[in-house]
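To close the chapter, one final illustration. This time we ask the reader to focus less on the individual chains and more on the assembly as a whole: which components sit near each other, and how the overall shape emerges from the parts.
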Amino acid sequence: MKTAFIGLGVMGYPMAGHLVKGGHEVTVYNRTTAKAQKWADEHGGSYAETPAEAAKGADVVCLCVGNDDDVRSVTFGDDGVLAGMSAGAVLVDHTTASAVVAREVSAKADELGIGFIDAPVSGGQAGAENGALTVMIGGEQTVYEKAVPVIDCYARMHQLLGSVGSGQLAKMVNQICIAGLVQGLSEGIAFGMRAGLDMKATIEVLSKGAAGSWQMDNRYETMIDDKFEHGFAVDWMRKDLGIALEESKSNGARLPVTALVDQFYADVQEDGGNRWDTSSLVTRIR
Amino acid sequence: MKTAFIGLGVMGYPMAGHLVKGGHEVTVYNRTTAKAQKWADEHGGSYAETPAEAAKGADVVCLCVGNDDDVRSVTFGDDGVLAGMSAGAVLVDHTTASAVVAREVSAKADELGIGFIDAPVSGGQAGAENGALTVMIGGEQTVYEKAVPVIDCYARMHQLLGSVGSGQLAKMVNQICIAGLVQGLSEGIAFGMRAGLDMKATIEVLSKGAAGSWQMDNRYETMIDDKFEHGFAVDWMRKDLGIALEESKSNGARLPVTALVDQFYADVQEDGGNRWDTSSLVTRIR
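The assembled structure is written out below.
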């Protein structure tokens, strides 16, 4: 397939690489052109000077940029991907963004006969590098099916969850669950350390029962050892929690602990933890 | 071995039964004698009229009662187990209680040459019935070893975690982790339902990733379907969180979300949910 990939950050760079390995023809675009050039040199694909140019003639165009405004900036206008794409092509947005922007892009794409799915990912940098991401998808079945041969290149799991926006909403559920979970784990670890427990032995026992979680299995040691370079950064978590809290204003969901944990992450940022992973939440109470 | 089991509640009743199946000689005591009589009829063991009498001549005496004061009441005084036990015997307390009472009982036992371990369990009623409990233990290695042939009858996993009180402290860590985790999951589910997501499909995807947990795997359906008869009751959770919050006053741990969730459980009690399982936390925000 002829594909384009817009946004070569820590996620997009390896994801676009997997498209080449999967046998697709790939043209990339990145705000900093030097990085696009480097990517093309390494992978044997090509790069373009604008999103529109990269998207020209592509069957599937993927985005993975920073936030709602970045999505709008690479999608709309004379240089945006929609200006370059043809009717019948499919636009896949892997950015974690709002359901609002997903519906906005979808409406505009629809007018042009272009398919759209919102498809935020989880699995982090390691998942992107190993082609083992999980992709939560919102949109129409037929559009989703056209994108599957592309998504398959970097995802271990992908699922259509409902109409446009559902991918973003599911990602919000994910981050909301993680916020409470990581705070609970942080309080448990902080308490256990102050109580003088052998935390390795304790977690060994607890992790098999009703307190068990992926976070407990994979982060308790780094939380005890103050090693916070193992995943998703606090700045990005606050962006995602901000999106969820904003959405809750319109759907009426009550998120008291999510809102509180968002503020706790502000404490971590204040302590210089912008780039620490989310398990650094423990630092403010240890 | 000659054993005694004090307290035939939903946990103790089947646990004492497993001792008989394991080939031990068992004498039980229960505050309501009729229940002890029923147990003895069913299992072929014997029952006694006081804890002291039940404990007489036993190598290992197990307690599984309600709270700190219940532990004191069946342990101390002329009718308490310590009055019946001989030097060299071992007292195992399976009650979830404070580390303070564990140290108190241990000190008194020590004066009499009796060994003591605190050994709260997790795994709930199902774990007790299936002999699949997890036991968190505090005390001395030699004392623990004497109790192993007894504990093995109803536990799938047991581990010595440190000096007397460590079992109780580890159980507190467990409940603290669960408090934040279940609230995060509740907020995620409440948000997803209001957002109109297919929650079954959504959780299917999320449960494999960084938001995954035992609670998500085992409780999300019952939380959506309002079925709260599947485990540990809210009244008992509040008792346990109360113990943890009290302990945090002396060890200095900060538990903001644990304290908040304890108050949220008070809302559930106010709504008549005293006997609902802990996942009923979702009801106050759905």
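The mean pLDDT of chain B is 97. The first strand of chain B starts at residue 2 and ends at 6. With these observations in hand, you are ready for the problems at the end of the chapter.
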